[in-house]
Each structure stands twice: as structure tokens, then as C-alpha cells.
Design goal:
With 599 residues, the protein is α+β, with helices and mostly antiparallel strands. It contains 15 helices and 22 strands. The chain binds 2-acetamido-2-deoxy-beta-D-glucopyranose (NAG) (5 copies).
Length: 599
């Protein structure tokens, strides 16, 4: 009885629906030479470009709830219609929809936690970027200043063009939009070799608690589409800049914490003591980021904190190198955050971060934390990860076959095999054991295919359509911008986040990948499980019996033409001598190659 009445009741209701005001907000992803229209009941209404690329309009509703957005040329002609169908709901007026994109609700799950965080992390004003949505940024910049940047990312001899240009930017989130004055600059070094350049905006007023927004074509945090003037660049990662504001939030968990002096580093920042003053450190390897003007010890020496640490660490080595007691570790922990660097090192080993702290002495912030009165190392720029090492001659080919590689992986890559900093740490069994323990917990709880897959799959779901859009854009982007381009396909993308490598095809793609993401996680986690079980057996047996695959390394020094050359004899299972860096100023990657590209 009840059920029979229901359709009748519903049809009565629809008959009485009154016209309502419906508001629409949509973000264009097509650049400023197009407008957006609303197509409703077969009529097209041009929408208002409130702050480009956000268009709005309000209509009186009729009975249908279906609508679409269309792309209009400047004469108001429809040049394209969305492929997707939309239905008006109570939510529509309060969100910013995106042209030709479904209103997806993706809930990216956090990775399982291995340990409680060491730092308080996050304030109300400065939250992590929301990785459940894709932001959109449009910048209107001074045309000739901007052209100077995009056409000349390098000056002569590979020197970075550090010019800036003035812009007005509109930053659109799912529910908000922000307009700011900003200056635009290029970022990175390698990134400038690509047609799809990497950018940073410094803002006159904060957005999401930040005074700068940094867009990189590589590595992950949250996502944003980027359009500058008429150039639709496509999908980028929006990443944080490790400055005072970030430190305040992420390390101290306060809005205006007393933050200390910090230095950014490039390959070769070995943390060796070289002397007391600026002239010993200010050679492009260490760059002062923030100076704590209230540091009572520094006396105006901007490099005081670096020198002080380097000296203290060297003294600690001298005093405790033959001491295996807890006292040695306690003495170190009085001035250095050991636990944080060990956690970081486990991640670097598992992901094979060949351009970071351990392997390359770079891409880390060296920070004096005045709240704890301790020095600490804060990593950034993990773009050289999950690739394995095959693309770098610095590492052996058999790195995945030796379990020991899980702790020794970076030793051989370093210039002159110099493992000054990490070697001194691992000289202490207590520290080495803690590293092993962290690795064990990390593999069990996070670094395995089952634990990471939900994150990978949800991000795929969020960005897949934009990834495909992005692939086509590179050929439509201003042809006068020189630089490498990549032409991936959806199959490449899906394959590479799973178990497929990406072949190097120089005519199509400059970048390749020796491993699929899940493939790497599987292989490396399995390898390091073996390493850990060898270590465990080793401990139980007390005496050092053979680890499955051992290698003895002897270093001999000979002098030719006054330069010291290290040669290595590698016995047992090793087949090849593994080269170290050939570039004197770097521990790391073969930067020499870039000279060729720069013409
Ligand atoms: C910086 O930009 C200005 C304006 O576009 C230009 O005149 C100048 O040559 C640029 N400087 C460099 C070093 O490229
Ligand atoms: C940008 O700067 C101009 C001139 O200083 C100022 O009038 C305007 O309000 C600023 N706009 C924004 C969005 O901050
Ligand atoms: C590493 O490179 C060698 C030589 O190019 C190749 O034979 C081998 O298959 C590569 N290994 C992986 C895992 O890509
Ligand atoms: C000693 O180590 C070996 C392998 O290294 C292992 O097979 C053996 O079970 C260990 N002995 C004990 C008593 O655990
Ligand atoms: C030593 O120096 C000379 C002259 O600069 C050079 O020809 C020679 O190759 C050098 N020898 C080695 C072993 O580097």
C-alpha cells in the first residue's frame, strides 16, 4: 500500500517546485583567451570571469537539474563542450567546480605511522597542503619580464637567471579563492633544463599560512594546475619551502616560534670542520637561509652555528671513537638530534635517495633548534628516489642482490669513498642497532606494497584525468621555450606506479624509470628483510659469522701528481669496481653532463 503511493507523492512534489536561484562557480583550465559558458536547457549563458580562471553565474532554475559548461572564444562562440554530465545539487553553489573534471571526493589515507612524531608539527594557520584536491593557479605577469625568465632560464655558462617578475596571482581551491601580488622566479637547477619549468611565487600576503608558493614538475606533496599569462603549463606539485614559517609550524608546532639559524645545502656539504668563519663555508655548498639575530653566541658570524656544530662533532669523534658505551651516544645526543637523522637515513636507504644527505651530502636543511639546543638535519627534494641506481654510474649494478646494500648502499657512491659523517655514527654499535631497528619497524608497518598501495591508488584516482591532460599540453606550450620534454601515455603512468619500468626512448622521453613504484617497494623491502634477518642471526650467534654475501673492501692510497687517488680492491662476490663521483666539487651525480646540454 505504502509503496504504491510513493510515485504519486513524488510527482506531486515536483509539480510544486519553485524556481530557485542557482549559483555556479567553475575554474577554467584553458588559458585566458577563452571564456566559459553555462549550458542549461539548451541555452548558453556567458559566465562572469570574477577572478580568472574562476567564472561564476546565477540563474533561475527550471525543472531540469542537468547542465554543462562550455568553452567560448572571445566572440562568444562555443568551441568545446564538456564531455561529462553534471547535475545540480545543494553543494554546487558552494564549491569551485573545474571545467571538464568530475567533482571527485577522494580521501587520501595517511600512511600508517611507524612511530610518534619527534616534532609537534602543524598549526591552525599553517596546515599541510590538502592532498585530497587539486588547486589551480593563474598568474598574470609582466610580459617582457616573464619572457626573459622562460626563454633564458640560464645565463651564459650555466649560471642561473635569478631575475624576478611582478605578477598578480589567483589561487583557487575547492571552496576558496585568493588574489595576491607576487614576484615570480625560477627554481631549481636541473629543473631549468626542461621546457616545463619550475616556479616560485613570493606573495605580498599569505595564502594558507604561506608567504611563498613553489611549483615543481617533480616529486610529491599536493597538486596544482599552473597557468602563467597565456602559457598553460599543466599539473605540478606544490611543495613547501623550508623557511622560518615552515620551521615554526612543522618543527616547533607554534605560530611564531623562536626559530634558529638554518642553512640549505648542495651536494658536498660534508659537515666537516673547515674553520670558524664565513670564508670556509660560503662556497656555494652551504647557503644561509635564516639567521637568528637573537643568538647570544653567534656574535654576528653567520656561519657560527655551522662551524660550531662541525667542531663539536669532530671533537665528539676524537673523544668517543673507541667507546662503545651508551655514554658515547649520550654525549652526541646532547647536541645533535640523532633519532631524526636515523629515521631519515632509513627512508633514504629504502627509497635509494641518491641525491640527498647520506649519498650526496646535499638537499638537507642544517638547522640549529634553539628550543632544544640541538642541531638537526631536515631533508627536502626527494626527486631522485624510487629509481634505483642504474642511471648513475656511481653505484654498482648488483645493488639489489646484496642485502648489505641496505646499510652500505651510499658508501661507495661518495667521492673518495669518504664517509666521514655517517661512518662516525655507525662506528657505534648502539647507533647501528637503532638504525636496524627503525628499518625493521618501517618495513613492517609502512614500506611494503600492501601498506603503500592505498595511497598510490587514491592519488592515481585524484590526478589521473589531469595527468592525461598534462601529457598533451607539453606540445601546445610555447615552442620558443627550449628544454627537455617528456611524452608519457596513460599506460606508462599506470604501468610505472605498478610493476613496469619505463624505457629510455630519447626521441620521446628524457626521463625513464628502471622500476615501477610498487616493484621497487617490493624488491627493496624484500632485500632489506634479508639484511635484517642476517643481522639478527649475526647477533644471536654472537660471533660474526658470514653474512650471506660478504665483501671485503680495502682502501689503498697512492700519490700521483700530488693528488690522492683511492683505489678499491673488492673481493669475494663483487664483480666490478664501482666508480665514485668524478666531479671534484660534488660527492654526487655526474653534473658534468649538463654542460653539454647547455650549449
Ligand atoms: C632581467 O630582466 C630585465 C627585464 O626583463 C632584463 O632587461 C635584464 O636583461 C634581465 N637580466 C638578466 C641578467 O637576464
Ligand atoms: C597589489 O599592489 C597594488 C599596488 O601596491 C595594490 O593597490 C593592490 O591592492 C595589491 N593587490 C593585492 C591583491 O594585494
Ligand atoms: C642495470 O643496467 C644494466 C646495464 O645497463 C642492465 O643490464 C640491467 O638490466 C639493469 N638493471 C636493472 C634492474 O634495471
Ligand atoms: C647462526 O647464523 C646462521 C646464519 O648466519 C643461522 O643459520 C643459524 O641458525 C644461527 N645460529 C643460531 C643459534 O641462531
Ligand atoms: C701527471 O701529470 C702529467 C702532466 O700534467 C700528465 O700528463 C699525466 O697524465 C699525469 N699522470 C697521472 C697519473 O695523472
Amino acid at each position: 500500500m505504502k509503496f504504491e503511493l510513493l510515485p504519486f507523492a513524488l510527482s506531486c512534489l515536483t509539480a510544486f517546485i519553485k524556481a530557485e536561484s542557482w549559483k555556479f562557480n567553475v575554474v577554467s583550465i584553458k588559458g585566458p583567451s577563452y571564456d566559459i559558458g553555462l549550458k542549461y536547457n539548451n541555452k548558453v549563458l556567458k559566465m562572469e570571469p570574477s577572478v580568472f580562471p574562476l567564472f561564476t553565474t546565477t540563474i533561475e532554475s527550471e525543472s531540469s537539474k542537468n547542465y554543462k559548461y562550455v568553452l567560448l572564444d572571445k566572440d562568444g562562440n562555443v568551441v568545446e563542450e564538456e564531455e561529462i554530465k553534471r547535475t545540480y545539487t545543494s553543494e554546487t553553489s558552494s564549491i569551485n567546480e573545474v571545467y571538464n573534471r568530475e567533482n571527485k571526493v577522494v580521501d587520501i589515507p595517511p600512511l600508517p605511522k611507524v612511530y610518534d612524531p619527534l616534532f609537534k608539527s602543524g598549526t591552525n594557520k599553517y596546515q599541510e597542503y590538502d592532498d585530497n584536491e587539486i588547486y589551480t593557479l593563474y598568474a598574470k605577469c609582466d610580459e617582457s619580464e616573464y619572457n626573459n625568465l622562460k626563454y633564458n632560464p640560464f645565463l651564459s655558462d650555466g649560471v642561473k637567471n635569478e631575475n624576478t617578475t611582478n605578477c598578480i596571482i589567483n589561487f583557487i581551491t575547492k571552496t576558496k579563492n585568493y588574489q595576491r601580488n607576487a614576484t615570480l622566479e625560477l627554481t631549481g637547477y636541473d629543473s631549468r633544463l626542461y621546457k616545463k619549468l619550475s616556479w616560485k611565487f613570493k606573495l605580498n600576503k599569505k595564502i594558507l599560512g604561506r608567504k611563498s608558493l613553489k611549483f615543481r614538475a617533480t616529486y610529491s606533496s599536493a597538486y596544482s594546475r599552473v597557468i602563467i599569462n597565456d602559457d598553460v603549463y599543466g599539473l605540478y606539485n606544490i611543495v613547501d619551502v623550508p623557511n622560518k614559517r615552515w620551521l615554526s609550524s612543522a618543527i616547533h608546532g607554534k605560530k611564531k616560534a623562536h626559530t634558529g639559524t638554518s642553512y640549505k645545502t648542495r651536494a658536498g656539504a660534508s659537515l666537516k670542520y673547515l674553520g670558524e668563519t664565513e670564508k670556509y663555508y660560503n662556497n656555494g655548498v652551504y647557503k644561509v637561509i635564516e639567521i637568528d639575530k637573537n643568538d647570544p653566541e653567534a656574535n654576528g658570524n653567520n656561519y657560527y652555528r655551522l662551524a660550531h656544530f662541525a667542531k663539536t662533532y669532530a671533537d665528539w669523534i676524537d673523544q668517543y671513537q673507541n667507546d662503545q658505551s651508551q655514554a658515547a651516544v649520550d654525549a652526541l645526543e646532547k647536541f645533535f638530534n640523532l633519532e631524526s637523522v636515523l629515521r631519515q637515513m632509513v627512508i633514504e636507504s629504502l627509497t635509494f635517495s641518491y641525491d640527498n644527505f647520506w649519498a650526496n651530502s646535499g638537499n638537507y636543511l642544517f638547522y640549529y633548534n634553539p628550543e632544544q639546543n640541538k642541531y638537526q638535519i631536515i631533508p627536502y627534494d626527494f626527486d631522485g628516489t624510487f629509481h634505483g641506481s642504474n642511471s648513475s654510474k656511481r653505484f654498482g649494478e648488483d645493488y639489489l642482490e646484496e642485502p648489505e646494500n641496505c646499510i652500505s648502499w651510499a658508501d661507495r657512491s661518495r667521492r673518495h669513498y669518504d664517509t666521514y659523517f655517517v661512518g662516525a655514527l655507525f662506528n657505534h654499535d648502539i647507533i647501528k642497532n637503532r638504525y636496524n631497528e627503525i628499518m625493521k619497524d618501517t618495513i613492517n608497518k609502512v614500506f611494503n606494497v600492501d601498506s603503500i598501495s592505498p595511497l598510490i591508488e587514491n592519488i592515481r584516482n585524484l590526478i589521473e584525468v589531469d595527468i592525461v591532460w598534462n601529457f598533451d599540453l607539453i606540445d601546445k606550450l610555447d615552442n620558443k621555450i627550449s628544454g627537455f620534454v617528456n611524452h608519457y601515455t596513460l599506460d606508462d603512468f599506470i604501468g610505472n606506479i605498478n610493476y613496469d619500468k619505463l624505457e629510455y626512448k630519447p626521441s620521446i622521453n628524457n626521463n625513464f624509470a628502471n622500476f615501477g613504484l610498487k616493484q621497487w617497494i617490493k624488491l627493496r623491502s624484500e632485500q632489506c628483510q634479508i639484511y635484517l634477518s642476517n643481522v639478527a642471526n649475526d647477533k644471536i650467534n654472537k660471533t660474526k659469522t658470514t653474512i650471506t654475501i660478504t665483501r671485503t673492501i680495502t682502501t689503498t692510497k697512492k700519490t700521483t701528481n700530488n693528488t690522492k687517488t683511492d683505489t678499491k680492491k673488492i673481493s669475494t662476490t663483487s664483480r666490478k669496481i664501482i666508480p665514485t663521483s668524478t666531479v671534484s666539487s660534488r660527492c654526487g651525480p655526474e653534473y658534468g653532463a649538463y654542460k653539454l646540454i647547455l650549449k
